[in-house]
């Protein structure tokens, strides 16, 4: 026994020593599930379990103690959610996916025990399907258009579909709109006619009832359309149903042979409650419901309808409304409630009102991200203050002396150990570090919740729920716009972030401003604007360092937020242009601004490019990052001349797809000037189709598409150059002097699908750029830009070698050591966000998918930082040693010379 | 130092030379202590000896004219040697540089560095060199000297040029190029649907 223990301990030691020093040092990953669609609580010999089947087609087991994911299985992605039902019977988790694919998962590890595809071969006769899993069998109840139901029972665990029973029941009153449900081995449907509403039901697992429906009268009302029957959440294995008729909630017990001897009956009818859920204590059934009069409290109702408890939930206001709740009766007699809220969060609460844990699963559907610099420390702030108030020279001198005295004081305190207590920000590490590596990540999710996350460790700092702000609808799907109007660099002024969304019913634009560091809202009520066509952050700030937002509404009227900044725009209105691409009309319009007497600034059409809708469809627009810094203005050729880059900041790329019967799909890419509307370059790819990914930076355009003919993903690269002379080295204008750029193009093959693509960015643009490619498998690869160089030659010449070009090989390499997320695969990568840090060599890469992953990327290696394993002590010792040796030898030499002299 | 020591006292004078910076008296005492066979001549007066045959203390009468002429020629000659020195080095330098090759590695760089530094140094110290150049043709010689050094510098520069070390291409000044100022600003994108 002892020897075995020793062997185990030794092995543990060896295993943990593998590459441990690097993992998680600069990166972190946070795993999410998406909004829970089905939740099951279960008990097995290993304790309690929480199972979640989410709307993102993820099934997972959650630790009830802390809310951590115990296991997670990511099923294939679909535009609509795929789970149809979830059962936990007899220590087995059974999920129904996409209309009949049944998986059985082990509750402890999440391994697949068995699965079967029971999807109907033809959907023609099938109207609707219901499922039920009993201890031995899985039942599929199909409502067919042959005026009846067809029931199929399959033995569990059989890989092949072995039918244990198949029977049909004639029911001509069933239709597509019939409301039905399964619970406790009973299939029940609402049937209504002029006389009233009845519940028709039969038992699935008892042979005696295979002949037909039995019926139970429920109500005399004739409004069948509003009636609904549902199983009670948490009581799926018990024969209880809830029937909702208008605002009345009926609880029904459908079992025949109870101890009291009564048959199926309505237990109670109540109003003003919603979302019935229940739990069983063994011999009794209790039902919980949300009190509609006070949405924050929950009622526990007994079988006879008496309200046993009315408990307040004390749900944090940032969760919004409760969408689903499941109660659980723990052994110590307390009641636990698991809630799924409007913000997609899953929380476990112990009644009365104590949150045990909460999972912010809304972060699986992030729509907008921005990185915000953290505010400077107090001492740095005092230095900033010194420059802030510069009224007179004497005042400045006084400020300077004061701040330096303060610094001296803090230094002395630091040495003596009397430091002032750290502020809250300092405690949370929410102050800027020396290299500005840690930032605040502002994330906005699809339900409208805004999170502040520390980039250092991925912990959430603040949360604000804005349920009124709905995503804007664009070609690429729902979109929320987040602008950082003022960063934390302008010291006395607080930083300002603004979220732009849409009002659900009217489609009007909504603006909410908040402090990205603390999450404090600047305006409690969102600012309402007419429906928004376009919004951009203006390039020039006002006197308070606030960058205004430029909004063009559908009537092409200009709005400036804040309105006080309108004069800035009016001054510059002759040099401001806006282009709008309308997918439905197939046009790209350019606008310039003119003063209109009554409405202020109005956009007037200056140019229009038309893409006939019947032949071409605008797919996407890719523009350069605003305020992009390009360090090198040209490229050095092999003969040491310069090829100047064509750095038109107004350039944008537009991709259209077309379809015709001969060439099938084709892809067109245009480079347009946003000021003049001139088309500077085009590319046409035959038999190419989306998914499209485009990145546009400096003088580059890189895009990927699917080549239908060769069935592979291709990456095209386009580079623009002015030529060997620069037309104007000081200013760039699109309007005057037409200079057509030189265009270099090349195509490459990528050996796997691409889910997202993004270039790295650094503070000053000196570091070479890499392209980050997210793959559907969950890996993110870093690809050096020179692999995508369109100037890669077919035949290597000395000059090309001198220039540092690599010979053209169509396949782009995927090196395993260039995968930045090593073994931490991120399922369903949707976007990669990059942000510069204070270190020129380092760029933050934030991968958004089902999970969130943040790491540091240094495309040219960390040339400005000492290596991790740099031996400071050795260097210091050697230096000190040499210094000592220097003085010692000097002394010795002097003595020797003196001795020599005396001889 | 040795001038007041009679030629006979060779041993002693060697000793004096050996202890160059010491005062005579101290040295003598120490010598007396140290060397058995050393004789102290300082206390005794040296005896008058007859000059050896062929030795004359009176200076030889050389024709002043001829000597003067020879001096002049010698000065001019020496000055020309000095002036032509850099030019004479040129073929040798060119050969060395040719042998060094155009690759940029430590030895060619060192050689080119030496080739460049030497004439530049020489040019810096022209004043001192010119003081040595005398005679009627001094102006021409100075000119030749300067030209020779400049030719050496030129050779070094030519080598630098052929090695690609001179910033003569546009690409060498690329890093100092400021980004272009943007005169117009454009914003835009795909219109949001209502």
Tell me the layout of helices and strands.
The complex is a heterodimer of chains A (903) and B (194).
Chain A: H1 2-16, E1 28-30, E2 36-44, E3 47-54, E4 58-62, E5 69-74, E6 83-88, E7 93-97, E8 101-105, E9 112-117, E10 126-133, E11 137-144, E12 148-155, E13 163-170, E14 180-183, E15 186-192, E16 197-203, E17 214-219, E18 227-231, E19 240-245, E20 248-253, E21 265-270, E22 273-280, E23 285-291, E24 297-301, E25 307-312, E26 322-329, E27 335-341, E28 346-350, E29 354-359, E30 366-373, H2 378-388, H3 393-416, H4 424-427, E31 439-445, E32 449-454, E33 460-465, E34 469-470, E35 472-474, E36 477-479, E37 481-486, E38 496-503, E39 509-514, E40 527-529, E41 532-537, E42 549-553, E43 558-561, H5 566-571, E44 576-582, E45 587-596, E46 600-610, E47 616-623, E48 634-636, E49 642-645, E50 651-660, E51 664-673, E52 679-686, E53 688-697, E54 700-707, E55 712-723, E56 731-732, E57 742-750, E58 756-759, E59 770-774, E60 780-784, H6 798-803, E61 831-836, E62 843-848, E63 852-857, H7 872-902
Antiparallel strand pairs in A: 1-63, 2-3, 3-4, 4-5, 6-7, 7-8, 8-9, 10-11, 11-12, 12-13, 14-15, 15-16, 16-17, 18-19, 19-20, 20-21, 22-23, 23-24, 24-25, 26-27, 27-28, 28-29, 30-31, 31-32, 32-33, 34-38, 35-36, 37-38, 38-39, 39-40, 41-42, 42-43, 44-45, 45-46, 47-50, 48-49, 49-55, 50-51, 51-52, 53-54, ...
Helix pairs in contact in A: 2-3
Chain B: H1 10-18, H2 24-34, H3 64-100, H4 106-124, H5 126-132, H6 138-163, E1 181-182, E2 185-190
Helix pairs in contact in B: 3-4, 3-6, 4-6
Signal peptide (chain A): 1-17
Subcellular location (chain A): Endoplasmic reticulum membrane
Pfam family, one (chain A): EMC1_C
In short:
The complex is a heterodimer of chains A (903) and B (194). Chain A is mainly beta. Helix content of chain A is 11%, strand content 44%.
| Outline type of chain A | globular
What structural category characterises the helix and strand content of chain A? mainly beta
Looking at how many chains there are and whether they match, the oligomeric state comes to: heterodimer
Strand runs of chain B, count: 2
Distance between the termini of chain A: 81 Å
Number of strands of chain A: 63
Order of helices and strands of chain B: HHHHHHEE
What Rg of chain A do the Cα atoms give?
A: 34 Å
Protein name (chain B): ER membrane protein complex subunit 4
InterPro entries (chain B): TMEM85/Emc4
Membrane topology (chain B): Multi-pass membrane protein
Subcellular location (chain B): Endoplasmic reticulum membrane
């Amino acid at each position: 026994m002892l020897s075995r223990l020793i062997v185990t301990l030794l092995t543990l030691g060896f295993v943990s020593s593998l590459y441990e020093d690097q993992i998680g040092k600069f990166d972190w990953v946070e795993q999410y599930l998406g909004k829970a669609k089905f939740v099951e609580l279960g008990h097995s010999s290993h304790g309690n379990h929480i199972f979640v089947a989410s709307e993102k087609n993820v099934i997972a087991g959650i630790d009830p103690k802390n809310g951590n994911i115990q296991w997670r299985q990511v099923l294939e992605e679909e535009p609509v959610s795929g789970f149809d039902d979830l059962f936990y019977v007899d220590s087995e988790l059974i999920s129904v996916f996409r209309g009949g694919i049944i998986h059985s998962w082990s509750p402890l590890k999440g391994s697949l025990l068995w699965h079967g595809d029971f999807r109907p071969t033809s959907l023609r006769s099938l109207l609707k399907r219901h499922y039920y899993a009993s201890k031995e069998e899985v039942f599929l109840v199909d409502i067919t258009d042959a005026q009846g139901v067809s029931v199929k029972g399959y033995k569990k665990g059989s890989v092949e579909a072995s039918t244990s029973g198949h029977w049909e029941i004639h029911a001509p009153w069933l239709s597509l709109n019939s409301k039905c449900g399964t619970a406790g081995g009973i299939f029940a449907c609402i049937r209504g006619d002029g006389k009233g509403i009845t519940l028709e039901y039969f038992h699935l697992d008892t042979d005696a009832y295979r002949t037909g429906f039995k019926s139970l009268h429920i109500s005399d009302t004739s409004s069948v359309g509003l009636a609904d029957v549902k199983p009670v959440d948490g009581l799926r294995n018990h024969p209880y149903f809830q029937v909702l008729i208008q605002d009345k909630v009926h609880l029904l017990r459908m079992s025949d042979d109870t101890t009291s001897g009564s048959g199926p009956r309505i237990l109670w009818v109540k109003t003003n409650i919603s979302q019935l859920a229940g739990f069983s204590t063994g011999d009794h059934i209790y039902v919980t419901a949300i009190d509609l009069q006070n949405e924050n409290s929950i009622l526990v109702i007994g079988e006879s309808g008496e309200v046993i408890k009315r408990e307040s939930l004390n749900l944090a206001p940032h969760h919004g409304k409760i969408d689903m709740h499941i109660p659980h009766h723990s052994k110590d007699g307390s009641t636990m409630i698991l809630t799924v809220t409007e913000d997609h969060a899953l929380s476990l609460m112990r009644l009365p009102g104590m949150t045990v844990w909460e999972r912010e699963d809304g972060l699986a559907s992030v729509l907008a991200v921005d990185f915000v610099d953290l505010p400077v420390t107090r001492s740095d702030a005092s230095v900033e203050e010194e420059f802030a108030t510069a009224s007179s020279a004497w005042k400045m001198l006084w400020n300077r002396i004061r701040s330096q005295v303060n610094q001296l004081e803090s230094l002395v305190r630091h040495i003596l150990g009397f430091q002032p207590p750290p502020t809250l920000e300092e405690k949370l590490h929410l102050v800027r570090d020396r290299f500005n590596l840690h930032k605040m990540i502002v994330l906005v999710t699809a339900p409208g919740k805004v999170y502040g996350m520390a980039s250092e460790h991925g912990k959430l700092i603040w949360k604000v729920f804005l349920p009124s702000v709905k995503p804007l609808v664009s070609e690429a799907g729902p979109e929320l716009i987040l602008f950082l109007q003022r960063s934390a660099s302008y010291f006395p002024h607080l930083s300002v972030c603004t979220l732009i969304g849409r009002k659900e019913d009217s489609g009007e634009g909504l603006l909410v401003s908040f402090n990205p560091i603390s999450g404090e809202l600047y305006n409690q009520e969102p600012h309402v604007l007419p429906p928004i066509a376009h919004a951009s952050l203006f390039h020039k700030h006002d006197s308070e360092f606030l960058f205004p937002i430029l909004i063009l509404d559908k009537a092409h009227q200009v709005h400036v937020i804040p309105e006080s900044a309108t004069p800035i725009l009016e001054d510059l209105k002759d040099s401001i242009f806006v282009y709008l691409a309308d997918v439905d009309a197939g046009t790209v319009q350019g606008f310039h601004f003119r003063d209109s007497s009554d409405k202020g600034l109005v956009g007037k059409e200056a140019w229009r490019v038309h893409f006939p809708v019947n032949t071409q469809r605008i797919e996407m627009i890719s523009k350069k990052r605003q305020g992009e810094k390009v360090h090198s203005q040209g490229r050095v050729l092999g003969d040491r001349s310069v090829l100047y880059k064509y750095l038109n900041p107004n350039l944008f790329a537009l991709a259209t797809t077309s379809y015709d019967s001969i060439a099938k799909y084709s892809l067109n890419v245009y480079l347009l000037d946003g000021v003049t509307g001139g088309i500077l370059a085009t590319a046409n790819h035959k038999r190419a189709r989306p998914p499209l990914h485009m990145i546009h930076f400096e003088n580059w355009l890189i895009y990927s598409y699917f080549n239908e003919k060769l069935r592979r993903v291709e990456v095209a690269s386009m580079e623009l150059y002015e030529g060997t002379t620069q037309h104007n080295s000081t200013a760039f204008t699109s309007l005057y002097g037409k200079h057509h750029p030189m265009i270099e193009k090349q195509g490459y093959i990528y050996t796997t699908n691409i889910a997202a693509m993004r270039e790295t960015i650094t503070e000053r643009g000196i570091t070479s750029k890499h392209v980050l490619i997210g793959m559907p498998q969950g890996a993110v690869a870093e690809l050096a830009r020179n692999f995508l160089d369109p100037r890669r030659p077919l035949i290597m010449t000395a000059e090309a070698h001198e220039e540092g070009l690599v010979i053209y090989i169509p396949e782009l390499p995927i090196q395993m050591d260039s995968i930045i997320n090593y073994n931490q695969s991120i399922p369903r990568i949707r976007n990669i966000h990059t942000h510069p840090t204070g270190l020129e060599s380092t760029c933050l890469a934030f991968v958004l998918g089902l999970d969130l992953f943040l790491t540091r990327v240094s495309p040219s290696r960390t040339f400005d930082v000492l290596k991790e394993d740099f031996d400071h002590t050795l260097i210091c010792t050697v230096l000190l040693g040499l210094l000592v040796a220097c003085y010692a030898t000097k002394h010795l030499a002097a003595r020797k010379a003196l001795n020599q002299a005396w001889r | 130092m040795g001038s007041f020591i009679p030629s006979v006292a060779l041993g002693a004078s060697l000793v004096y030379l050996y202890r160059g910076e010491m005062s005579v008296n101290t040295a003598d005492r120490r010598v007396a202590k140290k060397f058995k066979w050393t004789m102290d001549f300082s206390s005794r007066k040296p005896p008058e000896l007859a000059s050896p045959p062929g030795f004359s203390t009176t200076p030889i009468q050389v024709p002043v004219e001829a000597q003067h002429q020879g001096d002049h020629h010698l000065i001019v000659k020496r000055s020309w040697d000095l002036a032509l020195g850099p030019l004479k080095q040129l073929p040798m330098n060119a050969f060395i540089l040719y042998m060094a090759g155009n690759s940029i590695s430590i030895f060619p760089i060192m050689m080119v560095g030496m080739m460049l530094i030497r004439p530049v140094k020489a040019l810096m110290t022209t004043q001192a060199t010119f003081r040595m150049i005398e005679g009627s043709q001094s102006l021409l010689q100075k000119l030749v000297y300067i030209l020779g050094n400049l030719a050496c510098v030129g050779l070094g520069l030519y080598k630098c040029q052929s090695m690609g070390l001179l910033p003569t291409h546009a690409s060498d000044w690329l890093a100092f190029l400021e980004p272009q100022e943007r005169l117009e600003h454009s914003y835009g994108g795909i219109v949001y649907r209502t």
